[in-house]
Amino acid sequence: MKTFVIANQKGGVGKTAIACHLTFFLHERGYKVLHVDLDPQANGSKTLSAHKSGITASQLFNAEPLSIAQSKSGLTLIEADAGLTQVERAENKVIATFHSQLAALAPQFDYCVIDTAPTFGLRMTAALIAGNFVLSPIELEGYSIDGITSMIKAFQGIKQKYNPGLKFLGMLPNRYSAVSPAQKLALKELLPKYASYIVPAKIPMRSAISEALNLGVPVWRLDKSSARDAGKEFKAVLDLVIQRSESQ
Questions:
Q1: How far are the Cα atoms of 196, 238, 242 from residue 26, in angstroms, in the given order?
Q2: CA spacing 20 to 30 A to 170: which of 140, 148, 227, 237?
Q3: Distance between CA atoms of 238 and 27, rounded to whole angstroms?
Q4: pLDDT per residue over 28-84, tens digit each?
Q5: First and final CA of the chain: distance in angstroms?
Q6: Whole-angstrom Cα distance, residue 4 to residue 6?
Q7: pLDDT at residue number 106
Q8: Are 51 and 75 in contact (CB under 8 A)?
Q9: Domain that holds residue 34
Q10: pLDDT per residue over 208-239, tens digit each?
Q11: Count of the separate structural domains present in the chain
């Protein structure tokens, strides 16, 4: 099982939208996909509620053996729950427990997508230690850009100390507006220093994306004309992400 971790210490950058669409994308390619929602806000769990497994995310941090009811569709959700807020106050040993629980489930799936909360705490650390690939959505605005250096250092620290096989796929510009001078300037300023860390693609700002997620479908399945371009753009980006993962 290959595991993608969608992570950024900054909130509101579209992690859940990208995590859910990556899950849908892999599922539509015929793979068995496990989606783990580690964000107590549970937005991704709402989008994927039709695929509940009966297991909650906080259970992955408990030593009790888990038996998962795999969805007949091949897409299975481990949903976020209120217990995740308690995990941050737990002892560090639960990180190893999370890794073991995920490893036990791995033979049933081809891919796992982990959506994380915007905090570099115990839950994100556990996900990064268990993951194979990290994709970090960013928005091209001041507060998001300010945290890039610390974010990269955090990922590199996990790789060096705990998970040498972890691959950083890059930072993915999200909600990009081609008519925004501020965003164009931010991207221009980022490239000289972080070019090797930036995914050479962008997800444009499209209202159809959030509308689709509210309906529990990927944007390319939304039955309206405004979603067609959004769907093509999103699929092109996800194709690139998969290619980058397969080449590393």
A1: 25, 9, 9
A2: 227
A3: 12
A4: 999 999 999 999 999 999 999 999 999 999 999 998 988 887 677 899 999 999 999
A5: 16
A6: 6
A7: 94
A8: yes
A9: 2-246
A10: 999 999 999 999 999 888 788 888 999 999 99
A11: 1
Q: For residue 188, give every residue at least 6 positions away whose Cβ sits within 8 Å of its Cβ, in sequence order, or none.
A: none
Please provide residue 176's backbone torsions phi and psi, each rounded to the nearest 5 degrees: -80, 135
Residue 12's alpha-carbon distances to 4, 41, 75, 202, 211, in angstroms, are: 19, 12, 25, 16, 16
135 contacts 5 by C-beta, under 8 angstroms = yes
Q: Scan for tokens 């599922």, then name that residue.
A: 27
DSSP 8-state class, residue 71: -
Contact 124, 107 (CB under 8 A): no
What is the torsional sign of CA 105, 119, 6, 47? Answer: positive
Question: What is the enclosing helix (H) or strand (E) of 170?
Answer: strand 167-176
Residue 179 token pair: 């008519």
**Model-level pTM greater than 0.70?**
yes
Of 248 and 46, the structure prediction assigns the larger pLDDT to 46
How many other C-beta atoms are found inside a 10 Å radius of the C-beta of residue 46?
16
Among 2, 15, 40, CA closest to 151: 15
Spatial distance between the Cα atoms of 55 and 45, rounded to a whole number of angstroms: 12
State the CATH number of the domain containing residue 207: 3.40.50.300
